[in-house]
Task: inverse folding
């Protein structure tokens, strides 16, 4: 949270260096200790909350999906820090139907995907209600998503995201969905718009 030495944080928080080392190494601390550390970090600027000092793979996946749901094409402004430099986003679909399908590497690649996807589709923010399944160094998320294509609403489609982590950062994300349903919806909407 801050670039303080262990000694500085110890002095500011009133806890021993042993407790600070325990916190840094992921040891179990009482909630009151975490709250006191938050107060020490909050002294300089802004409020630091307990969730800012704790980390779980599930909370990282949730933060990523919240950024997507609420911020769309600008999501990396809110969650780019959660991705490794060599992050890979893989969308399993036919590239002749979905020009954004394939592998997108790094944050720049992810932003390129977002630009293409949001150029083709528009979403209503705040609609995702994902369910999660936790595995060893993996999180699986499933949710219904819905978009607008050429101004028309597409049917809801289940999306399955498979998060992989390295050093508490997302290193790989597989996106699987019913590409046949999506393809048929796009084709049907395109035909209706062409006739209009």
Result:
């Amino acid at each position: 949270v801050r670039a303080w030495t262990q000694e500085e944080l110890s002095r500011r928080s009133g806890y021993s260096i042993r407790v600070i080392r325990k916190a840094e190494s992921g040891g179990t601390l009482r909630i009151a200790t975490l709250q006191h550390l938050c107060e020490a970090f909050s002294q300089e600027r802004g409020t630091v909350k307990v969730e800012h000092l704790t980390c779980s793979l599930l909370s990282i996946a949730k933060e990523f999906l919240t950024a997507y749901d609420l911020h769309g094409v600008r999501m990396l402004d809110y969650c780019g820090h959660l991705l490794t430099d060599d992050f890979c986003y893989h969308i399993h679909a036919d590239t002749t139907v979905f020009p954004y399908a394939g592998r997108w590497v790094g944050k720049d690649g992810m932003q390129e995907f977002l630009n293409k996807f949001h150029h083709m589709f528009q979403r209503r923010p705040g609609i995702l209600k994902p369910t999660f399944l936790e595995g060893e160094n993996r999180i699986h998320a499933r949710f219904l998503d819905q978009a607008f294509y050429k101004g028309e609403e597409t049917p809801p489609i289940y999306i399955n995201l498979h998060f992989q982590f390295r050093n508490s950062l997302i290193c790989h994300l597989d996106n699987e969905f019913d590409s046949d349903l999506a393809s048929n919806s796009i084709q049907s909407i395109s035909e209706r718009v062409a006739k209009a």
The chain has a mean pLDDT of 89. Helices lie at 6-13, 17-24, 31-42, 50-53, 57-71, 76-79, 106-120, 179-195. DSSP finds eight helices and nine strands in the chain. The two ends are 55 Å apart (CA to CA).
